[in-house]
Fold these 4 entries.
Entry 1:
Amino acid sequence: MSAAWIARRPWRGAAITALALTGGIGASGCGEPRPERVVLVTIDTLRADHLGCYGARVSETPALDALARRGVRFATAIAPTPLTLPSHASLLTGLDPPNHGVRNNGTFALEPGIPTLAARLGEAGFATAAFLGAVVLDRQYGLARGFDVYDDSMTLRRHVGETGFAERRADRVVDAALAWLEGAPSRFLLWVHLYDPHADYDPPSPFKEAWAAAPYAGEVAFADQQLGRLLDAVDARWPREGTLVVATSDHGESLGEHGEPSHAYTLYDATQRVPLLLRGPGLPAGAVVEAPVRLVDVAPTILARVDAASFAAADGSDLSPLLAGDDASDRTAYLETLAPQLDLAWSPLLGLRTPEWKYVRAPVPELYALRSDPHELRNQASQRPEQVEALDRALTARLSGARAATRRLEPDAEQRARLEALGYVVPDGPTPTGDLLRPGGRDPKDGVVELERLSAAHRLLTQERPAEALAQLALLEEPGFEVEILRGLAKLHTGDPEGAARAGANAI
């Protein structure tokens, strides 16, 4: 086994080494036990470095840390995009966004012909159920295909009368999942999506009080508690050794790094590096895989471990060979966010992440040497043009044959309101003109502050605080369509119809 890829807990080193030498750790197959159940948990907007098992010093994640002790922790797992819907589409199909065609939240849907994890497991005789925490994964976006039960009911609104978020807290999502488990067969796929760490950060008591100075960490701690509650119920009913548990996230959260308060508009590791933990039959306890892996590898890995039919075509691949010491796999991660272009007519960002380099195609290209600069603080693009050229060629090759990036959905007024209540920018009208995927327009790294003010204005209007929304809009450097529309709404709500009319005229 390659010590470069598997780091061991000191007290388990001899046992894991012995298993490796005798073939007890390895690719699926070779007579190892097969999982009868798969529990897939995605905790939205979860940074890897906010888990104790990933080195967080200020953290409370005992359930996730226990998964790491009892299973495998992938030290560097990379999401393809900092957007909830496209990233979950990649998780469930093994395809990067250019190949499944879902490029943004709210205006794209997965095409019916693309195979999904749930459909494959259903064909293999698994009951399939999903329980979702936010409207952004509503069934209309295509991820319900293959699930016998797809519970996307958002009738339980968070802080009704205050923010009205179209979101279910983690305890309500787990309540629904536990109710389904009471009558579930022994062979199933259960996907549970917990949205809580997503902005705004407002954990329930007692987490609210315990984490008053770090509310994001409080949201993470609450989600972790509910994950523990779910897994305790599964393990109490069925043998643990027959259940494959996968815990991960769709993307992380910037928390102010690189000037971005949240996510969606940059591609730094603060939003792209996510936790990935696997526990189940044939997997070694306490192992750590250091090799970079990708979110698109998750579905192929699950299919291989349960011995279900694989995808005919996928960008991801089974992770089991890494546990057998295969250190030669090329798992270059594709990265993109089209949200800047589709939401704001700014430039899109596309990139590649290798074990050594992060390259971002942008109006001002970015190149980071990850081993010496893990926080991506020193852009070396101008100093290493040959490296930029090589990675840009590789990126162009990855994009060849991609599905057309055309919007397939136009949300109605109610759907738009529910998404905007979560802080998402949902553009009106057709996709902006110009070449999708081609850098051009404002560089998102130059506009993240303005973007946060725009999102804050959305949230304040939803909370019926128009005067505060106007104060945020007054700070924006680039008044445009979205700004003037929000300004007009805010002025209307403050009793200034003439100001609202002027803002409307400016928007035209």
Note: The longest strand covers residues 37-43.
Entry 2:
Amino acid sequence: MKKLIFLIILNALFLITDSFSFGQNRTIDSLLMLLRNDKADTNKVNHLNALGRLLMFQNPDTAIILGKQALSLITPAQSIEFPDAKEVIENNGIMAFRAVTLGNLGIYYYLKADYFNALEYYFKALKIDEALKNKKNIASHLCNIGLVYSFKGDYPISLDYYLKALKIGEEIGNKQILANTLNNIGIVYNNQYDYPKALHYYFMSLKRSEEIGNKMGIEQVLGDIGIVYDEQKNYPKALEYDLKAFKIAEELGDKIGIARHTGNIGTIYNDQGDFIKALKYNFKALKIAEELGEKNLIATNLSNIGLLYSKTGEFKDAEIYLKRAIALDESIGVMDGLMTDEEYLSQLYDTTGQYKEALIHYKKSISLKDTIFSQENKKQLIRKEMNFEFDKKEAATKAEHDKEMAVAEAEKKKQQIVIWSVIGGLFLVIVFASFVFRSLRI
């Protein structure tokens, strides 16, 4: 059954926007009042960005409008879209505002599952922050870019961006970056059915999130761990982790998290053969997802409901839900979701004796599977991780060598000082002796 391995971008977003909270009406009203009186200055930009972040889950379209308004205030008409490094450095204050706003717009488009525009804005923000040498934000953009490629099923490229973000996180010692990125890497391996490796990265992520008390991060990774245990048919443990995640999501008021964990609990019941309970949970999850307009969640639950109706013999309803899932996954470009939808529809047609249709959708599913899970992709994943580990070891060896060289250089200087001190002392002795000798002669 299709599971939603959905690391919401909020953790990566935290790196750019330090003041996110699940939007309270009072805060929104306060920001609207401030915006009525704001002049066209940095205060207005901050307030537009803050309001956009509060509205992004419930209304990403409005968030996009607010983000573009903020961008218009910090972008002169004659400014080019990709400024050169000199321009960025000369106007670093303004360009930092611009990078934050571009990054936010990328997130808003991502939440609409508009991956083309999301990538465009992420890359613009990344270029500016690279010129500003803002490592924390660079890591955030890299993580967000990797997440888009992961949803598109391009796991080697996704892992490449995650490993770059991980390297920066280790360089600057930022546990928030490390927690986010490790979880994302876990998702890549989970989607490749490498469950031991997925758990390895998930538990490393969980440890970092617990160390900094990041409840959102803890919630997300607990849900992801639950998915792995479900895949391994360890249903009691899967349910335990999903229920823990669900409880934290409720405490945080995280509606997307609630929908996500509700759907995954439905999956656990389905895998145990309790189709009535599974349908109940998937319909609950679908309702929340539709209220939020969260397309990935909607497609996942449509697909799961279609599969459940197939299993309970309600074939007409099954076909309706699976076709809706296919249309939605095609529109947003979620390759692995589409592969699963096509597989379920093929099985449905095979069960109902529509063998021609079954073969068409089976071929589509196999074609997508070959693309996503090709041996070349797996080799690339292994290569990228090995290169990353090699670079880490090489950097550690170099650091140790540099330390040894520094100690040797210090020792060498010390010896030189001693030698020159001895030479200086001998010279003074010779001079003194010559004076004594001259005096004795006289």
Note: The chain has a mean pLDDT of 82.
Entry 3:
Amino acid sequence: MLPNPSNVHDTSTFYGKFYDRISKSGLRHHIRAVLFFQGETNALSGYQETIQSYQNKYLRLREHWKIDYSFDWEYLFQIRPGCWVGNFHIIQEAQRRMPQKVTNLRVMSSTGMNQANCHYFFHNGYERAGLDIYRMVARDLYQKEEVLNIYPPEVDSIWFSNCDRTEITLRLHRDDDTYFWTPGWEPDFRIEGDSTVAVLSGYILGNTVVLKLSKAPEASFKGLSYLSHIGGAEAPVKNANGIGMLIFYNMPVSDCINTSPKESISSYQSSVFPNPTTGIVQIKLSAPSTVSIYDVSGVLIHRECVNNFDVHPVRIQGPSGWYLVVIANEDLFHTFRIMKH
């Protein structure tokens, strides 16, 4: 897809042929967005791509786009494994991170598209790609009202949610979207650094995905990957529009902090007080839970596992303002909005 560096518009290249067609059509100065679906070839081991090298190639390509065309938005489809065995995880992770490099770039997953092992079927495949991208384009270019579930589910943080490290929780970026778990695709997740650990099951809790592991990972554990699979349209996590979760590679997993011995479960409900607070909130639990505190931008500032059911103090580290306290376990998912003076 890259142009000939000595003759950018050389029509013997894909880039030059495309430029020639657009120029002759009279549309060159009327391009509003670029939709890009590429990367399977770069996954071949002979390319020896790294995350950085693929991103550099994409950035080099878009430099020429910006010279030759005038557009405001870019939509990048994240590829799925297929056609051959290769370093798909490298390309997928590079694509997932591209919005960190380019403003006005959105990434769309292909994990919910109906794939025929290499290319895609039309029904629920290429057709789905068009419908999924349309919702984004309608919002960005045509000022349509933003609705829920138009972006692919995307993980923004991961942690061990019990203190024996046999359960992992993934927090999804958009709190208001609706998510669904489809069993049977647990092998799409991979424990990096310890191939003896498998994901046995999972479920959705609010905007989190909880994974049950076969055992605790060894000290060689590096992180968690979601790599999808070849063929079909199923994915373990989708939103209410059927859009599959974005693939990620070797994301870090935070440790759980064990604060007290386990005691019997009492019958009262969880609560957080006082509100407002000067810095310390008292948390009362009805079951062993993970307590997480986020600032107003959604950044995690504190997390710990709490196993006792008496009042447990937690300090909010940060300036005055609003914070979100999230209490989660298998039976509940409570959020509390707290003001710190």
Note: The helical segments are 14-25, 51-68, 88-96, 122-141.
Entry 4:
Amino acid sequence: LAGEREELAASQGQAEAERRDLPDLAAAKAEVQELRATLAERRSALSEAQGVRDRLLREAEARASRLLAIRDERASWESRVGSARRHLAELDERARAAQAEIDALAERPAALAAQRETLAESIAAAADKRRSAADALARGESRLAEADRAQKAADKAVAEAREARVRAEGGVDQARATLDGVVERARERLECSLSEVLHHAELDPGEALPERDEVTRTLQRLTKEREGIGAVNLRAEEEAAELEERIAGMRREREDLTAAIARLRQGIGSLNREGRERLLAAFEQVNGHFSELFVRLFGGGRAHLSLTESEDPLAAGLEIMASPPGKRLQVMSLLSGGEQTLTALALLFAVFLTNPAPICVLDEVDAPLDDANVDRFCSLVSELAASGDTRFLLITHHRMTMSRVDRLFGVTMSERGVSQLVSVDLRAAEELREAG
């Protein structure tokens, strides 16, 4: 600018000299006007140059501040890189620990499966024993009934045999009495023995017999007398002994069957007694956990489980009695949908606390719950997951539940008609944000 000023001054001096040299004033004025126009142009150029200079200075200052910001940002990124490396080292350590835990837990399913198979085999064996015992009991009762029927038949046969024996003995006695009477009458009337009757009757065995009618009447009389005597069973005593021996064997079998039935009933009673004891113990544990979890989920109130319809725990039903805060004690069916859901969750988690499982899948259980109950539900699930060995898999559309989990799995459609599975580790994201 100084050089241009000097040039302008020289030009002005030269112009004045030329003006003095020029005799024409109008021409000088015209030249002055031209010089003024040139001066205005040069002043405009000077202003533009100053504007460019100021803009360059501002840009230089902005670039200097930008360089300082870049240096600060670079230092921040270097710090974040160091934190990320440390975090990666921690994640590697956690991954190794998780892999070690996975390796340690890899044998758990096989052991649990083996234990489950053992328990299933024990249950099957117990069921088989029970069925065998029931079959043996049925067979024993059938054999007992058959033995009773056989004993009754044998008793009847013995009674009939005894009656036949008595009749036979009576017939024999009667025949003897008749024979004695005949002998006595022969002795009284003929004064001889029976062998001497024909001799005393003066009948020759070689002579003709008496009249047929007389003989017939005598034969009929003698036949009637013989029929009155009846048939004599010479094996009646042996048959009676055989029947008594069979009856004694049947009685021994009956005693054995009765003892076997008693033992079977004793075994069944022992099994039922042990089952009742275990059921009552498990019921008490589940009832205690259920009452505690109900209070935690509802923020108050009270609830308990009760056995109904029978005094025998093995045949009794289960009734859930619940009293949310501000309501009277009533059955579960009278509660609202959200209250029924919370009560059912309390019972489900009570069972899990009594007999934990490796995995628990909950499908849309928070759908009928409001935000306050969802918060209690998520807090309870977090505590159970942290304190036990159960891993919870939640299927949900509730934003509060999704914000409280450790990892999210979802399906998104980045392009029309193309679905993609997305996984987000919320815990790692929080740690990364805290590190940044």
Note: The longest strand covers residues 407-415.
